[in-house]
Design brief:
The protein is mainly α. The chain contains four helices and no strands. Helix 1 runs antiparallel to helix 2, helix 1 crosses helix 3 and helix 3 packs antiparallel against helix 4. The longest helix has 22 residues.
């Protein structure tokens, strides 16, 4: 169950990063509210997952899901560049996440 909480926390990290971008520096009330709710839920689920998962593993997986997820949303939704070097960097992060999971 801790892994499910952790994955959901990571997905919510992507949500709050995206809505923070849409909030235009917290000047758009609706997106700002979604950001704060998603952020709070993400941290809460991370905390619950950390009850039974090692700190290093949980935090690395959480930030990795957030980083790669935000990267993908940036490309697919916001039209950001998908250069070969950026894609390689994201693949290296995913590889690190897989190794972290295997090591725990």
């Amino acid at each position: 169950m801790a892994w499910m909480y952790l994955v959901l926390a990571g997905v919510l990290e992507v949500v709050w990063a995206y809505t923070m971008k849409l909030s235009a520096g917290f000047t758009q009330l609706g997106y700002s509210a979604i950001t704060l709710v998603a952020m709070t839920a993400s941290f809460g689920l991370l905390a619950v997952a950390m009850k039974s998962l090692p700190l290093g593993t949980a935090y690395t997986i959480w930030t990795g899901i957030g980083a790669v997820g935000a990267f993908v949303v940036g490309i697919l939704v916001l039209g950001e560049a998908a250069s070969p070097l950026r894609i390689l960097a994201a693949l290296l992060i995913v590889g690190g996440l897989v190794l972290m999971k295997l090591a725990s």
